[in-house]
Amino acid sequence: MGQFTESNDLLGDAAGLRKRLNEDGYLFVRELLPREEVLDLRRQILEFCREAGWLIEGSDLMAGLTDHAPLLEGDEEWQPVYAKLQALEAFHRLKLNADVHQLMEGLFQEPVLALPMTIARIAFPNDNERGTQPHQDWLYVGGSTETISCWGALGDVPERVGGLKLLKGSHKAGFLKPVPAMGPGGQTVAVDPELEWVQSDYRAGDLLMFKALTIHSAADNHTADTLRLSIDFRYTGQSHSITDKWLEPHFSWLGEPFSWDTLDRGWRDSPTARYWEKLPKLKIKEHEMLHAE
Ligand SMILES: O=C(O)CCC(=O)C(=O)O
Description:
7 helices; 4-stranded mixed β-sheet; alpha+beta
């Protein structure tokens, strides 16, 4: 497994960043997000995990240590914790960070949109077969194939805790036909053995950005007791198309606890709420997801 190429040296050089993104299919920037803000968000999420009884009693909160049986997203016991997390203004605000926004404008060379749906993963240890399998985000996101996904660890995530790994250069093969698989998303694609998987340790604030056709998956969590928390969100140019589903909160299909009316009740007057409704007319189309046969 190779290491990510760090692109901090290209910050401020939009053409250089675009070239690297188009060549490798990803950009990895250390501490693009403010570390303290990320750690504060981690603390708030881990408080919810502790209240739910998922953390080892008496352990250091920020270590995120668990002795709870693995839960998958969507599980009944997971839902109330995730609803509280999704109701945090700080969680939705992180993607609107000015440095991320500016970098995206440089990549798209036009005003950009952070897609409202923002996802958190709480990955339990001892559950590797059910982790996210190799896939291309475009299957789930639809709209423009130029859309860029961003993945950030909510805390320091050394390689033994997993994190996101990706197949360098895999975007060049275009859209691949998915087949059914375990784990979030429920689908996977065949991986070209000639291409190289890359990963690194992540520190709170680092951001991995990759193309909608770049194959990626969750690396295994080799610890016996450590939760992995992460955030993922997406950006596109305002002239590009997006799909209606991505204007809604993650898991909105479960109804009222995951509707904007419930989630942003406490922060509706903040610039984080409904910012997309104030933008010039967006190109929104229906999401027609291709299902694996
Ligand atoms: O963190 C994960 O388990 C997977 C996230 C992912 O695949 C994505 O951001 O597209």
